[in-house]
Amino acid sequence: MHSHPPFPSMPFMAAYAPLLCLFKGAARRGPGSEASTRQALALCSLPDRPAVADLGCGSGAATLVLARALQVPILALDADGAALDDLWDLAGAQGLLPLITPCPGDMAAPGIPRESLDLLWSEGAVAPLGWRQGLAIWKDLVRPGGFLALTDATWFEDHPPPEAQRAWAQWYPGMGTEASNLQVAQDLGLEVIGHFRLPRQDWWDYFEQAERQCQLHHGDKSLTETIAAIREETDLYRRAGHSYGYVFYILKKA
Ligand SMILES: C[S@@+](CC[C@H](N)C(=O)[O-])C[C@H]1O[C@@H](n2cnc3c(N)ncnc32)[C@H](O)[C@@H]1O
Prior knowledge:
CATH superfamily: Vaccinia Virus protein VP39
Low-confidence stretches: none
CATH architecture: 3-Layer(aba) Sandwich
Number of strands: 7
Number of domains: 1
Radius of gyration: 18 Å
Strand order of the largest sheet: 3-2-1-4-5-7-6
Mean pLDDT: 97
Strand content: 15-25%
Distance between the termini: 44 Å
Helix content: 25-40%
Order of helices and strands: HHEHEHEEHEHHEHHE
Bound molecules: S-adenosylmethionine
Largest sheet: 7 strands, mixed
Number of helices: 9
């Protein structure tokens, strides 16, 4: 048992309260996998003892993989204090607490000194800032020669099914294509080291876990709409998931 005072949540997260409540206790809050994290990490040539931060870390799905692989402290920042509580518990159970520095904060203004990081990681979290804005803020935190490794929801087709267009217009209006996202990165002076689509299995593992959370909260009236929305998202992916997905982008600061 590694008790600690609960990490505070940022006030602006109140709007997401039902979603955060639904995912409390879940090890992953978006599509991804240890294999995909490791595949991206292998593309980053890092110095000994790199300075690493995981922004929008959630309960640490990637943070814990990075800590195990690199054996260095990872700054794990999220606006949801309850997610950081989960990360704390998971890190304790895996013997990784000494390597995890949980940091409640806003990834738009994370308070990380300029050019202090060798590696900035973020899976599934850049969307609220938008790809261009997120990269523009985050690249300043990375040293010249350092890396940014991010996943972002991305269109795979020029003419996605209308139902997918309607849904993503609400969830992530500025969602780009691989080509447009790579162009933005290059416009901001970042070198593209690699990019790859997350396998569909990473989505199904996430949806399976989300469904387990829905069943856990079955009957909770405050979560009825949120549970319905998650199930609609799953159904949409089943029908139209060929037209969008997450892409891992591995970028280097010149
Ligand atoms: C889709 S989840 C991904 C979490 C984790 N990276 C994963 O892959 O499981 C997005 C995360 O971003 C966090 N987040 C959203 N807006 C944020 C902000 N402005 N500052 C910090 N974290 C934020 C949410 O609390 C959530 O944990």
